[in-house]
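In the previous chapter we treated chains in isolation. Here, by contrast, the input contains two separate entities that must be folded as one system, with a combined length of 997 residues.
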Amino acid sequence: MNSDASAHLRSCVSAAAGGLVPRHRFSGLLIGLLLAAALLLFPCSQPAIAQSPTELPLELQIDASIDQQNSTAGVPAVEQADADTLLRRTTLDLAGRIPTAKERDWYLALPAQTRQQLLVDRLLQLPDFDFHLRNSLDELLLPERPNDGEFREYLLTAVRERRPWSRMFREMLMASSVDGPDKGAAQFLKSRVRELDDLTNDTAVLFFGVNISCAKCHDHPLVSDWKQDHYYGMQAFFQRTFSSKKNVLLENPLGSVRFKTTAGEDRDAKFMFLTGAVVADATPTLTDEEKKAIEEQVRRLEREDDAQPITVSFSPRQALIETALADQQLYLARNIVNRTWARLLGTGFVDPPDQMHSGNPASHPQLLSDLAADFVQHDYDLRRLIRGIVLSRTYARSSRWTSEAAPPAAQTFAVAAARPLTPRQLAASLQIAVRSSDSWPSVEETLAKPDDWLKRRTDIENQAGAWMREFEQPAADFQIAVDEALFFSNSDRVQSDLLRDGGDRLVGALRSAETPELAAAELWRVVCGREPSAEEIEVVRGWLARAPERRVSDMQSLVWALLAGAEFRFNH
Amino acid sequence: MSDSGLSRRGFLSGATIGVGGALAADMRGVNGLRAEELAGELRRGEKHVILLWLAGGASQLETWDPKPGSKTGGPFGAISTNVAGIQVSELLPKLAQRMHLTAVIRSLNTKIADHGRGADLMERGRLDDPGLRYPDLGAVAARELGRLESTVPDYVSLYTSTEGRRKGTSGFLGARYAPLFLAENMAPPNSALHERLTAAEHQDRAALRDLLSKRFAAEHRSSTVGSLNSAYQRVQGMMASAGLFNIEQEPAEVRARYGPTQFGEQCLIARRLVEAGVPFVKVARAWWDSHGQNFETHLELCADLDHCMSVLLDDLQERGLLEKTLVITLGEFGRTPGINASLGRDHFASAWSCSLSGMGIRGGVVYGATDAEGHTVTDGEASAADLFATILQALGIDHTHEYMVGARPTPLADFGSKPIQAVLA
């Protein structure tokens, strides 16, 4: 290693060490006491799902682990978020949109102790939940093609039918071309089939939380877990995959991956999973003539519409699926648990989420393992996992930090994160925020007429699809660009559509509000899901006093100022 | 700006929203360095980069490193240039006559041959490390060459075609240095005042937005939250500089020179922007990804590149701008010497070329070499980091200068990179 490279390594390592939060092994006794205390304090957060007597609800497991680690490290947790904030946060996370003013009325009338559980269980039943979970999976798995209709239809079907994540994983990697709503499952691979490196690395990153691309050219410099054997081992599972002229994904019975090690040795890759588990090639030995015939058939399949389909006695992709599902280290489960946590809390236990390896340990390794084990035990049920997380007190903490001191590190989860809305969340929320509070059905009406709500929510979903392109998908250290500010400031779509006047519009409701106080209340309830403060009412009073005739343009400016504001832009 | 709108109308009459104090960005390390550097550098705003991004990966064999007559050479020949001893593909006849302005690097070995990560590498000069997102060249140039008080954008990216479209990233430098990204039109989108608003109304509601966002920003101090308010602070300046994108303002003869192609018009916009003080302009030309029909593709695209870049170099030179402007051709990788069954060339990052012209560059130089069929680098192997070090040196920026990102010193060009002195003036 030359001196520059070693300087680079030193820099990486010292940065990693500087960012580490002290981690401690749990005392089993202490955990038990904490759990018992938590049970006594929060008896109503018992989930409705049947529990074996020894199994604690997920939310209590979460809180015990997070609280214990923070109390050992002396990290104070902030207070719980207020009811309005928690309603907005939970609705954005489960329904993919802000709550309507009618939903807020319902929520605030519930007894405080059972409110969150009733809310969560209502949201899990709404079509909104299916749309939003579908969107979240779509953003994860096919980020470059946000409008792939087939893939989105498949995901929606799978989510609606509550298919286990293990089954969805199988369907996406088998990619068998059946007609019907499941056809789109193949898009995960089809969109990457031209690049073997993309098939290999994206599967490892998105399904297993592992980025092994550094191990392509050399054994990973910092992570002893990943060798070239792992990279090419994973690649071997995909090397025989090809797309026919008819755009069907097939596997070639022949083919292997040969790579050059850094020592210059040529090596044949084994079918090797991340754990080192190796699958033998069960393809029968073929004569040279049989091989030639197969090669010819593959060539024809790539070029001709009517070529004979090819069958394989050994499918490397199926071998990968079975190996991953049998994996005792639970890569598949730990990855989606970590990513779901990161989506709901802002940061994963493992961060970045594709760096799941011994050099980058989880902030809460035991909790991650426990959640992953629970996930597998309950048939890879995403709803159960999500429900457990959003019922925890950890999830419900305030995001406000007013102290002069720096806030605690993200991975302590002691303060909630202000998370930028995704393009679809923002676009769907805008559809709600520009209509008056009266234009929405009550919760009771939604319950009585679920089909009406499905239709309405489907409209919002479609509208959101048309608006989302104006916004950027958040990534790590996301920064909002000036483009978005220009769009809100000057585009005709915002001016003519969002700010339109009319009977069911917020602009119309503000014009007909009898007093500035009522106008302010309507504005903040609809857009921010809370009551305005005294200062905010004062601002509205001052603004309206300029032109008592309530000009449309003045009302539009009021609505605009909140829609373009920081509070609306974030899930906090 | 916004305050005057407020006080003029006086609608607030004393109403305030608590929690004063400006929002501090999270990256004090990055921002702190900036002030020191400014003190010593008075000549900001006078150096520029135009990056002609050959999206999808142009073939080095059909551009800067022809191999006529070899097994991999393809049907096109090589032609002599106005610099003795240097030949380029016959598809670049006009650039061949301007070879004295250009240095060619024929020995890039950047290893990564998939579009996404290849572009990551060639835009940033290195791949992201876990937890550290690097800025691309445009963002670094914007920060190092731009003026804080500038009213023009400092990083403009024109990317009209959809293939391989990438917005670019300012990484850890933050949203201030993110590109003004033009994908749909050649004017910055949403930069004109809406017909139903007066300028005063526009400013008043912006001031109202700022006021109503203050408390939230003060209670949620993250760089992401801060970036929203920063973005709105720049709206007025961006609206004021929109005319730079209007080539109707150029004389007809100048427009005729660049020609009616989209790439030509965008090169003209790039020249206008540079003339107005914009430090970095990227013009993407797609789509060079010729897995099939490589030679037809290059026949068409090289003609466009040859003409537009030649006019651009001439125009910059005539205006005295070329000595202050570095013009780069680069993409995510080159193409395989081997020709596939569809008469295409596939992705190839082991031995490919790029060009540098203008500021800080010794023209009429070829650096590095590949073997007779172009499979490997035989002389002067250069990495992406080396190329970035070279580019920064050409601009007079110390490539070893370090930003502090948190506690982590991070040099402008990656550790171990070495500028290619042979191409530097």
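Residues 172 and 185 of chain A are 5 Å apart (CA to CA). Chain A touches chain B through 73 residues (CB under 8 Å). Compare these points with the single-chain example from earlier in the chapter.
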